[in-house]
Structures are given as C-alpha cells and as structure tokens.
Fold Tryptophan halogenase.
Amino acid sequence: MSGSFTVIVAGRDAPLWLAAAALARSLAPSGVKVEAVELPSALTPADVYATFPALEALHNQLRLDEAGLLRATVASLTLGQNFTDLAGAYPPFLHAYGSAGARIGDSDFFAHWVKARRYGLNVPLDDFSLTAAAARQGRLMFPDEENAIYGRCDYGYHLPAIAYARLLREAAIRYGATLHAADQLAVEHDGDTITAIELGEDRHFTADLFVDAGNVLGAATFHSWREYFPVDRVLTAAAPAFANIPVYAENRAGPTGWTALYPSRPATYVTHAWSSVLATDDEALAAASTASGLPLAGVVIRAVEPGCPAQPWTGNTVTLGASFDPVHGLDLLGFQVSLVQLLADFPAGTGFAAERAEYNRVTPEALDRLRDFQSAHYALARYAGPFWEAARATEVSADLAHAIALFRARAELAPFEEENLPPDSWRALLLGHGVEPESWPPATDRVPPEEVKAQFRRMLGFVREQVLRQPTQAEWLARA
C-alpha cells in the first residue's frame, strides 16, 4: 500500500481488541496505522466467551501461545455443547466439535451410517466420533498425527471475558495499535462518509477507514432477526466451579426458556434466556436457579435484539459481526467471520468501491448461515412449554427450510457457499431434534454391506483406543 493509511477501530472489550490486534498484526507491515478507540467495558465478572474451534486459527495468526492464554485467562477447554430436556421427554444430544467416522472408499461415512441404521444398526453416531466419545467419558481429545487421519477433533474455550479482553488489549498494543480511551464519542458525517469522530477534551480524529467493533458508530442500518428468535431477555450469573471441570457446556431446556452452564476454572458461568412475554425477570431468576441447581451470584439481566447490518460496509465504515441469539454462543464466531473477510477485502487505497461491494456480498450471507443454525434449534425443538411453543412458531428462512428438507430426504446437507460451520455441527443439531433422513445417496449402495460392517468395527475399536489415551480436564490443566 503506497502512502499512509489510517484505520480507526471503535468499540469495547474482546471484539474491539480482537479487531485491533488482527488489523495491526496483518497490516502494519504495509504501512497501515491502526488506532483503537476504547469505550467503557460492558463486561461483568459473570461474563464468559464460550468459543468455537475456529478461534484458535485467529489466535495462531496473532501468535497467542495457548498455554499463555490459558494461564492469563484461567480458562478451560470445551469439546462442545450438550442439549438436555429438563422434563426428560426427549434424549439429550451432544453438539461435539469434531467429525464422526472416516470415509469408506470414495463415499462419506454418514450416508453409510444412515443406511446401516435403517437395517438395524443400534450404535449412536457419537460412538464413531473421537470428540463426542471422549466428551461422554469426561476426557479431552487433542488432534495428533494418528487420529487426524481418522477425522477431525477440535475444541473451543470457556474464556472468562474480562481476562480475555485484557489479554487481547495487550496483544493489540504490542502489535502497534494506538489506544484512545473515551467515555463516549460523537460522529461527524458527510452523507454516508464519516469525516471525523470526537472523543471529548478537544480530541478530534480522522481516518481513511473506520471499523465499528461494537455498533457504536451508527453507520449501518440494522436488519432485525426478531422474527426468527423467541428470546428477548438474557440473565448471566456466576456459580461455584465444579471440582472436576466438565469438558463440555450444557444447555437445559425448561418450559419458559433455557439455561446454559459453561464450566471453567474460576466459576461455572450460567446463562438463562427467555421471552419477557412469558416470564418476568423474577420468574426467570427462579427458573435459572432451579435449572442450574447452583447458587447464583453477580446476576445481570440484559435485553437481546438479534440482527445484522443490512450493508455492513457503508461509505468508509465497516461494521463487524451481528447480534445473535445466545443459544449457541455465536457472537464471537460471527465477529471473527466478518473480521477475516475484512482482512481479505482490505483496500489497497482510498478508493474502495469494489472491495466494499464484495464485502457486502459475502458477509451478510455468511452471517445468515450462522443465524439459520440458531434458528433451527427453535424451529425444530420438541420440548414442552409455552416458550417452546412460541419458538416453533418463529419464521424459518427459505435456505433453512431447504436445508432441512434435503437432509430429511437423503441425508445430505445443502452446499451453501458462505458456510462457516462444519457438516458435523449441522448433523448433530438436526439429528438431535429428531430430523431423520429417509434415504441416502445411491452411490452409498456400491459398497458391500460386509465391508461396511468391517469398517464400522475397526472405527469403533480405534475410537475406544484413542479415548482411553486422553487426559481428563483436571489432568491436562495441571500440566498445561
């Protein structure tokens, strides 16, 4: 990039510092100057970032050592999320962060499993997954050369939010981002273009590009996702940590909402989500206490308004991420998807109409796919109670309806271009909510049944062997 180019990133907490660190790390060698405007934190000690495995790749780009990350944040690892019905009417299902089975010849394992189940196989899909099987045994699962040949096994983190934001702040400053702290900011416009921001005390800043890492600049018009989601209130709290930290989160469905437990070392972080139409704040607190079975401290209640920027790059301002429903904890993943796309489309100069058009083409589609994953949880859930009755009445996008229909018809997932969740996540969700494939791709029938049975036996033996080699969370953290 010729000449100087200044980017101002405005926001708060982990999103601000994740963006500032990534931009500074990637673009400073090209002469880009990154300035970070930090607004007061919105975090409390009861807040946690429950992350998906994709975040590790961004950490690697930022040269964040995992052992150092875990020490600085006192975080723990997670292999996925377990969804349970407090009424006990429906079996639990695990959304594990790993694949199930290995390819059989030239065809996908899942289609063979679907076919075998039609002919009497009584082995759950999770038994073929390294990650899911380890989670069920209370063990972690780490990728290595041997099991990488078999299939993907990943993990995320339960990151205490304040400590994580502090770590990212240090990284951003280390990579050269300049910090400007402010209690508030005012924006000066010329049409769609931000000409300057005012931070008070006669602090006046201009830039070639503004990056909104928290919907604080107001450049984008937000498109509401309210029709897809029943939740409009969320409670967060901290409870005592478990003596033996579980290796996955748990989401418990109750009649008026759901309660999630995110175990970590400092605390067990509890989230309760509900609709204010169906329960008061006091009733929600009582439901969260009952569902978690834990004493709650530091309770904070917030409103939730899901939506995304209609045009995330407007004028000279890029608004990152979206406001998701909290059920799968996708906020940070959606933010990462937007940030990585910005790095891919970052302009080579001050005339960036083409880059803006491409960003606005790709990013909303990617965010919509994440939205549909969360929406499917409500549209398909069979749980009883007024909350879930309202959930099943929410809208379903045309893409999601097509994806469900295709999966039910022939065990296949629709190949959407801007997909950021692996097929195994979708399979776990759809199967968990009772969407049973009625058939399978015809190519599956080319493999003789005896060969499939032999392959299945080898896979199950390999998974059992690998799981027994893995440590518990406590054992691993003690030496991490």
The chain has three domains: 5-77+159-220+307-364, 98-153+397-468, 227-303. The mean pLDDT is 95.
